[in-house]
Amino acid sequence: MGTTNKTMATKDAVKIHEVVKYPDPVLARPGLPVTVFDEALKTLVAEMFESMYVAQGIGLAAPQISLSKRITVIDVSFKKNPKDRLVLINPEIVATKGKQVEEEGCLSLPDIREKVQRAAWVKVKAQNQRGEWFEVEGEELLARALLHEIDHLNGVLFIDRISRLKRELVLMKIRKMQKNGEW
Description:
Layout: E1 7-11, E2 14-17, H1 39-54, E3 59-61, E4 71-74, E5 86-97, E6 100-106, E7 109-118, E8 121-127, E9 133-139, H2 141-153, H3 164-179
Antiparallel strand pairs: 1-2, 3-4, 4-5, 5-8, 6-7, 8-9
C-alpha cells in the first residue's frame, strides 16, 4: 500500500494528512481499485478534502497522502461553492475533446509550475462514496483538474507530460532544493 501514512495535525477531529513530495515512490505507482465502500472510506474522503484545503490545493489524490488507492477529491471553487466538490473513486476517462495549454502546479511538487497540454473537455465515469457509478463532464480548469488527478491515480505526474528538456530543468531545480534542505 505504499509508505507509512503520515499525519500533520488534527482539525476538529478530522485528520490532516501530510502531502508527500516527489520523488516518493508511491507517486509513481498506479493506485489500487477501491472495493469497500464503508464509513472508513467516508472518513478518508473527509480527511482528504481537509488535507487538500490546508495545503491550498484544488485537487488531491490518495497517492499524494501515501495511500495507493484510486480515490481523488476535487474542488475547483476552493470552498466557495459546496456543490463543486467532487469525489471520484475508481475513475475512468470516457472521452476527451480539444486541447488547452495552461500552467499547472502540484501539491507534491511545491513551487514547480509548467505549461502542460491537456484536453479542453473530458467526460469521466467514477464511483461515489456509496459505490454508485456516475459520470461527470468538465471543461477548462475542471477538465485539467480531472485529468491531473486521474494521472496521479495512474502513477503519472504533470512533469511526465512536459518536454524532456523542461523536465530535466525541473529535476535539476528539485535536486538543488534537496541539496539546500529546502525540499
